[in-house]
């Protein structure tokens, strides 16, 4: 996966990943699932706290979340992330997207927050600005419990709010940008981590000293390890605000902070923090600018020295309310689905039978006429004019074809081995004459039955016959080299024309060549100088004369004219979408990429150079490059260029990679490898090309590792059994230093054809991209690739210059010119929805809001629950945490009626596995007379504990009881923010509702409508034969507050193979909840490339129709089918800095649907969240089919506002919520795979792609709950 640009994703976001620890470190990464991500943008409850303190918490104690500022969205911005795309995590990417992750670069708390009187920036916190008090640290009055900026003159650290580390800001001692990367996420899908891939959402800062991850103190480099979000459900994902150790992030106590002295400190302890009303404390310099401090230019704030409402807020120049967002009335307690007052429940007994499922599954014939209808892709219904307009520059560059020829000629190319030399060489042997090279020795030529090494017993009477097998396909890199060699050797045959090729089977010429078909023989990719001298002949065992020396292989290249392509089809396509424009686009794309492919290392659509690299741990290095692709827009052709980065294996000893895979310091530390260790090693080394060091040889790919070490792996050498270690000692006089390590197989996957080499005699060949990225790699990649928007823009322009398009002779030959300027685009900014809690509502600003002082709209009473301590934590510490959690739950509207849960400690049952402890706890709960068991709280030994998967598999598939995991290190310093995060997730799992949107959603609010999100998570490269995981989620109410999920394992495929059955079950669950059948369907589908859109539309619309008929013959609701793509490379930059958020990124709610979008399809780019570090990445939405006849404004508003219904955080997410939930469900389901023993060859080789897996089904008790959050 190439990481486009920066950012990355840190920490699992929980969301995608598994852990639910709210504090999970940002670096836990990966996921993507696919890793796709998952990363939670969410970040903290508002990390804001403290956020920008430039803005003043508005005097009323309105905690200002900075609006622009502060950590403001935690972190990592997308920028980078991994784009998964090319090899597309992170799913390239993808992995995962940009959900902002963690906080900013050492900016003190907020962005420049108040400097106090300009004095020393309080205790030295990071930069002057952000940190509190006027010189005095937070100052005495500093955090008073309510807030304010604290003391009189000093801002006191923003009322303790700050969420800074508890120590005040970023931990003052830490300097530097602790946040590190940005958005990231694997985007994986190409897979490179593309720019924004993983999701930039909320992850706390990487750079922190400890793992803190999201936000929170940690995110700032502080010492706490708080991290918001954590891997999946590890305690809330996003911490509110962060704050260091104190309780709130919004205002923690000064003492914890490290900065201040003060008095006010402790007051912040209440869970809200923002201090007293009157103490606005603002620096008198601040006001004007951005409304942070008030008056002056924007916002409501009073005089510039007040600090007041400030903010870009609603009244201010930027469109938003006070620093914290406008507040309004609450919704009260919201029970039910919201459809009780809309329409009537189904009364017809026949229909009730169908929709209750009692009627069974209706059989639907495969040839049913309704399933055979082809679905047409819809056209854009119009352009929306509502919203504030803003001007952007995007990383697209104009392409001129004014001088292009009227026709381009395409030739089909095939490359074959020359038939005259049946010889082995560095390009691989041809079929029947292939040598048996056991142990890496060259076979003797005297007789066909004589070999140095026999892997099987040889018969003295009858030498074994070599069995014929098909030729191995030529490597793609070799094919490209052979075609280039043919063009050089036969240059005169091409009439002086500059032709280009794609390195596989297509060659293009700007004019007709002198011939229509031609074969070019004896093509030598090594050049004429490599031609061998004819060697003397020697006799074989049967008397036949054979070559005693095998020279370099030569090839035959065949070319044939197959198509004449008119370049005028581009212009015709602008006015008529039926004109097929793909042939000319493919030809022009090959022309534009040809020179780069000759000079650089091509990975998918990305080009990389090895000139400048950054060394990673474990034998890997990070390399930079750029992404390039042609895009068809409205009456113009554009070139998309973006910065990219990816990981290569460092040339050097293979031992570095083996040691890293086994997680030991050195080879001498390897002891008694387990089956899991062997599988990890096999996956890490699979397909890596190595060169033996004990003798001269070509590079060879690794196919597996031995089941036994070198001193125990036996081979038959000329009838004598010996170990491989003994063989090397006798043959090469080499005593292996590490005979206790496994061997690598560089021969063949076929049993009996292995070629074993000790790891210590293998060197990694240069120029190999690494597909196996671990969490530590991810964290470092994010740190290295994160870039703010301005830097990203400058680097993209520099990449265009370095690509040298203006001097490219191949572009000139085809009459193509590329503009060097960014393409302008006009966009619109939509208003954010009001988020409503039981007692109050808030209009978010910058995609975030505060949970402080708010109650869930429907909290589920907790009457019977249990705690399992599977870590070295005392019972007293566990009980203290339980007390904090229950108190905070009561305040947030999640009433814990049971204050004394069943507690099972591992110390009571020495040697018991966590699954056994969970069963015992479940049994105890069933024996109580407090009602059915509701959930289990499991305290794990560490944030990345492998026990997490065991817990989820047991709770979700065996016990049928929701579980919430928490890392043990978070217990002693658990503050209200942390506990509130945990409560958010618990309430969702118990079928509660955290918040709803005040204003109606298009379609959903007016009649029963089901919103569906679907995704297929594919295993990362190197994960062997693991199946793909398909996940489909569907809304269960009018508020988009509760979603049920269905998951399934399947063979690798882009479509969802069990989709009809999954959809039927979800429709029936919707009826069970609402007593109404869905009258309309909105289907969001992720993971579909542009080339797959038509096929996926046909396949999955057929599945939808089949699901309808499986319930009732006459049920056929209208469907809107939308594809979501996070793995693209569009990056936008504001023309006017005043239109950007505090980090210079495009504001959330911004929509681009003109100028640079497809000229015919109904697509748009939507910024759903605000990034903090790095460059944010919008979601790309394509409406393929719309039977609901929605306007462009309605579908865009629905998509944007659904991003505010993501229940695990107080932030909008970067892409639409149902798809986000589908990612989470797919990532969770990967834990349900039970891997059997790997298939082994006759000598016990671990070959990772032959594994078998069993998939556990989700328990019926939790099937329709949000168990995956």
TrEMBL record:
The residue ranges flagged as biased composition, category Gly residues, are 1-13, 101-113, 148-162, 214-227, 308-335
User: Which superkingdom, per the lineage?
Assistant: Eukaryota
Where composition is biased (Low complexity), the residues are 114-125, 163-181, 528-540
Residue ranges annotated for the PAZ domain, each copy included? 653-766
Which Pfam families did the record assign? ArgoL1, ArgoL2, ArgoMid, ArgoN, PAZ, Piwi
Question: What PANTHER family does this protein's entry cite?
Answer: EUKARYOTIC TRANSLATION INITIATION FACTOR 2C
Its name, as the record gives it, is Piwi domain-containing protein
**Which organism is this entry from?**
Phytophthora nicotianae P1569
